[in-house]
Design a protein that fits this description.
- This protein is mainly alpha-helical.
- The chain has one domain: Orthogonal Bundle (MetI-like fold), CATH 1.10.3720.
- Helix content is 75%, strand content 0%.
Length: 299
């Protein structure tokens, strides 16, 4: 049991961190210690202490309650944006790999390059210039940026699978390229897509916080970690808790998602985990000796 926990350390720690914020987001739909839309000027800028565990902001709102609701906003925006990227990008990547060298493949790749030229923040600025700021527009901006990520990853991984023997057997059996992509290529890419989805999820949380920080994300009175940081920057000298707690929420959420993704990658690729343990077990002086012998053999 201890060995199992040691081998899955990143996966377990990341999963626990993620579960804490997911639980906070779910609970915030039904209960928060205080109403985040109610102003209580008499208790503004309270230091972290009971009954305000994380203190209060300049409007007297409970920081702990705002972080709970902010978790709901960040997770929802990142989850929907990643889903958009996968739903649109994965089929495009599969179709491009199945028709390598065709006109449609070239159009998909050049379209991906075009989208990559515009960061999510710039896409959000263009969208909000037309439709105005809001959580929905942040979702669209992050989702558009995720499409080429999944399309390029899927295409690159699928191209290597098209050369496998079982794919050649399927083609000889008369299966169409579309059917091969759905029955043979996609199932073998699920592990890779799940890991990449976890990584993009963490980047989505950061992107949402960045968009809210500059006023392009969720709008008041809906709490957002990024906007909480923006509102606290002028009061950090006398009320540092306004920035510390939402900043920690962002850091721990992104850290948990990255550790969870790293743990998933090790779980789905046992050879990678074995190589890491093997390298860690070899002393540094032996590694240096091996490198020197390798260099002499090359000469």
């Amino acid at each position: 049991m201890i060995q199992f926990l040691r081998n899955r350390r990143n996966l377990i720690i990341g999963a626990l961190l993620c579960l804490v914020f997911i639980a906070a987001a779910i609970v915030s739909f039904f209960w928060t210690p205080y109403d985040v839309t109610t102003l209580d000027i008499a208790n503004k800028l309270k230091k972290p202490a009971l009954p305000y565990l994380f203190g209060t902001d300049h409007f007297g709102r409970d920081i702990f309650s705002m972080i709970m609701v902010g978790a709901r906003t960040s997770i929802a925006v990142a989850l929907v944006a990643v889903t958009i990227g996968m739903v649109v990008g994965v089929p495009l990547g599969l179709f491009a790999a199945a028709n390598r060298g065709a006109l449609f493949d070239e159009l998909i790749m050049r379209g991906n390059d075009l989208i990559f030229a515009f960061p999510a923040l710039l896409i959000a600025i263009m969208i909000t210039a037309v439709f105005g700021p809001g959580a929905l527009n942040a979702i669209i901006a992050i989702g558009i940026f995720n499409i080429p990520v999944f399309a390029r990853l899927t295409r690159a991984a699928a191209l290597s699978l098209w050369e496998r023997d079982y794919i050649l057997s399927a083609r000889v059996a008369g299966k169409s390229r579309l059917r091969i992509s759905a029955e043979h290529i996609l199932p073998n890419l699920l592990n890779l897509l799940i890991v990449q989805g976890t990584i993009q999820f963490s980047l989505g949380v950061l992107a949402e916080a960045g968009l809210s920080y500059v006023g392009l994300g969720a709008q008041p009175p809906t709490p957002s970690w990024g906007r909480m940081l923006a509102e606290s920057q002028t009061m950090f000298s006398f009320a540092p808790h306004l920035a510390i707690f939402p900043g920690l929420a962002i850091v721990l959420t992104v850290l948990g998602l990255n550790l969870f993704g790293d743990g998933l990658r090790d779980y789905f690729d046992p050879k990678l985990r074995h190589n890491r343990r093997s390298e860690a077990a070899v002393p540094l002086d032996e590694l240096a000796l091996l490198d020197s012998e390798k260099g002499r053999s090359i000469k």
